[in-house]
Every structure is written in structure tokens, then in C-alpha cells.
Amino acid sequence: MAFKIEENENKVILRIEGAMTVYEVASIRSELAGCLEKSKGLVLKLDEVSDCDTAGVQLLCSAYRTARDKVRTFSVSGAPDVVRDAIDRIGLDPEAFFTTDEEA
Description:
Layout: E1 2-7, E2 12-20, H1 25-37, E3 41-52, H2 54-69, E4 73-77, H3 81-89, H4 94-97
Parallel strand pairs: 2-3, 3-4
Antiparallel strand pairs: 1-2
Helix pairs in contact: 1-2
């Protein structure tokens, strides 16, 4: 798993590469927390995610709630089928999670 970070004055763009599973969520959570602390907004780019399970979906939900509680903007874009399928498997609407790259 790897991260690529782009920053500007309004938001941090965090690209996650690799798996978002129970084995990686602790390090992803740490990276997300740091990004939410130093910016007014966070965009997660997931187009390079290769695997996602329920723990990865829970992490997305937790990041959204944390951003909302800290009055930060939060969006997710570029999710591949593995992420959409994981969201769908737990009974949520994948389309409700994501924005287009233009909206992000």
C-alpha cells in the first residue's frame, strides 16, 4: 500500500494505492487523520485501490464522520469496482459515496 498526497490551500488530495482491507486500515486511518488535521478538506482518490473489504468501507464511513465533526469537506472519487462491490455487499448505495473528479 502506498499514498500520494497533493496539497493546496483548501484541501488535501490523498491517493490510496493498493488494498483497503482489515490489514491496512490502521495505517490508512493514521494518514487520513493527519490529512484532516492540516486542511479544510480532503479528497480521497481511490482509482488505484486493488482490494477492499468491510473494514475499508467502515474506514470511509469513519473518515466522512470525522470530517463532518471537524467541519471539513470530504469527498471520494475514482473508486474501482472492488470498492463499489464492497459497499454494495454491506447494503449501502455505492453512488451515494462518490463524487466526480470535477466535483472533488
